[in-house]
Structures are given as C-alpha cells and as structure tokens.
C-alpha cells in the first residue's frame, strides 16, 4: 500500500500499452508469414477475446470504421516478417522490466539496482523467453483447434485456458526468480508464481463480468481513448497483483532464512 508501489505499477502499465500493438504485430507476423498457420493466428485472437471480449474484432482485429486499420489488414499488406516491429517491441518491452526490477529489489531488500545496460540485457532475455512461451501457447491452441474443428468454441476456450494458465505461471516464475538483483532461491518463488497466476485468471473473469458497465463508463469519460485507458487500467491491476506476490514471497523467504540461521530461537515475522 505504499505510494511508490502505485508509481511502479503505473510505469509498468504505461510500457505495456506502448508494447501491446508491436507485440501483436510480431506474433501475427510469425504465424502468418513464417509458420503460415491460420489456426495459430486464430489462437491469438482467442487469447485477446479473453481479455477484451467485444472490441477485438471491431477495433483491433479488423479496425473500427476502417478495416484497413485492423491488425490482420496491416499484416496482410506487409511483405514479410516485421523487423521494425521487433526493434520497437524490444525498446518498449524493456521499459516494463525497469520499474519491475526496482520494485522486486525493494521487496527482497537488494541494496543495489542493476546498471541500465545490465538491466536491458536481462530484460532482453526475459522478453525472448516470455515471447517464446506466448508463441508456444498459441501453437498448442492452434493444434487443438485443428484437432477439435467442428466442436465449437467451447473446446477451443477450454484448451486455451488449460494451456495459458501454466504458461502464465512459468512466466511469473522466471520474473520472480531472475529479475531481482540478488540471489533468490527458485523454490521460494514457486508458490507465489502459482498463486498469482490463479489470481490473474480470476482478474480476467472479473473483467469479463464488469465489461459492459466499464466500457459504457469509459466511453462516456474518455471517448476515443477508451481502449487505451482499458489496457492501462487492466495492466495496472495486474501489476499490483504481481508486486503483491513478490512482496509476499520475499517476506516468507526472508523469515525462513532467519529461522534457518538462528535455530532454536523464535522469530516474529512482520505482519502484512
């Protein structure tokens, strides 16, 4: 509940907004121009629908009022794989991990942050790892969609959620384990990665339940900026959950280390 945590979360969410569309361009470029696999492209759309149920087709996928502005139209007009989009994605996505590292360092009591260059190198590795996992999820869902073709969207949604949830947990595990600038035991962050992964899934359902009311409110208050505001707000609440998970696991781990170093003495752990 400290003020700086909200600063970190808003910084993360702003960079999510900047990297959102370039990330989709890179993903769909791979499925369309490299893999040439329509089922995997449809899996990306399915993933987006679980976050933004009624705006994907008319705003992002096809383009609101103008189909030429939609993602699929943009990809189809491009001659091949988008190098510029990759460079833009790397620049904007790296900005996500800068405030995230500072926040995790504070949670774990790390005295020094990484230098800018070292942070960018590690962020680059995490971007490739997370992007590979996201592409793996799309490919698995694409295979499932081809296998269950004709069974309707229920099987598609079910398999997508069964694959997306463990992949999200693995992404959280890598962030919790590798991003802090101090030694973190892998076993200590596993519970937080699992728990926060479930909470993020619950957050998606809360988003779906409140979607109609929220979009009416966003349209009235923000007009043409409503979709950008939606992405920022969703990313903010997700960031707060991720940071809360980091604080929780750091407190548990540090308290356990004190007990191991001072056997036989009672240790009072700080309250939440």
Molecular structure report:
The chain has 272 residues and is mostly helical. It has one domain (3-261). The chain contains 10 helices and no strands. Helix 5 packs across helix 6 (116-147). The longest helix is centred in the C-terminal third of the chain and has 36 residues, at 226-261. The radius of gyration is 20 Å and the shape is globular.
Oligomer: single chain
**What does the average pLDDT come to?**
79
The proportion of strand residues reads under 5%
Shape type: globular
- Largest sheet properties: none
User: What string, H for helix and E for strand, traces the elements in order?
Assistant: HHHHHHHHHH
Number of helices: 10
Number of strands: 0
**Helix share bin:** over 70%
Q: Which spans of ≥5 residues are poorly predicted at pLDDT below 50?
A: 64-68, 266-272
What distance separates the N and C termini? 10 Å
Which structural class matches the secondary elements? mainly alpha
Domain tally? 1
Please give the radius of gyration in angstroms.
20 Å
Quick structural gist:
The chain has 272 residues and is an all-alpha fold. The chain has one domain (3-261).
List key phrases describing it:
272 residues, mainly alpha, disordered C terminus
Write the layout of secondary structure elements.
Blueprint: H1 3-34, H2 38-49, H3 56-61, H4 71-77, H5 83-108, H6 116-147, H7 153-178, H8 186-209, H9 211-222, H10 226-261
């Amino acid at each position: 509940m400290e003020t700086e945590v909200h600063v970190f979360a808003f910084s993360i969410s702003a960079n999510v907004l900047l990297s959102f569309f370039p990330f989709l361009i890179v993903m769909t470029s791979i499925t369309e121009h490299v893999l040439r696999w329509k089922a995997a492209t449809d899996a990306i759309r399915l993933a987006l629908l679980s976050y933004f149920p009624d705006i994907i087709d008319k705003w992002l996928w096809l383009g609101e009022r103008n189909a030429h502005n939609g993602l699929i139209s943009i990809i189809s007009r491009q001659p091949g794989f988008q190098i510029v989009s990759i460079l833009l994605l790397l620049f904007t996505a790296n900005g996500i991990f800068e405030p995230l590292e500072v926040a995790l360092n504070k949670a774990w009591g790390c005295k020094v942050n990484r230098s800018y260059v070292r942070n960018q190198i590690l962020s680059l590795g995490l971007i490739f790892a997370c992007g590979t996992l996201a592409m793996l999820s799309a490919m698995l869902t694409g295979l499932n969609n081809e296998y269950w073709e004709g069974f309707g969207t229920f099987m598609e949604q079910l398999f997508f959620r069964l694959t997306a949830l463990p992949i999200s947990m693995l992404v959280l595990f890598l962030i919790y384990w590798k991003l802090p600038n101090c030694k973190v035991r892998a076993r200590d962050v596993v519970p937080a990665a699992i728990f926060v992964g479930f909470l993020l899934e619950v957050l998606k359902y809360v988003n779906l339940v409140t979607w109609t009311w929220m979009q009416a409110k966003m349209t009235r208050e923000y007009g043409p900026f409503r979709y950008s505001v939606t992405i920022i707000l969703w990313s903010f609440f997700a960031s707060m959950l991720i940071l809360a998970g980091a604080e929780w696991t750091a407190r548990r781990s540090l308290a356990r280390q004190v007990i191991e170093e001072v056997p036989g003495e009672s240790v009072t752990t700080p309250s939440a």
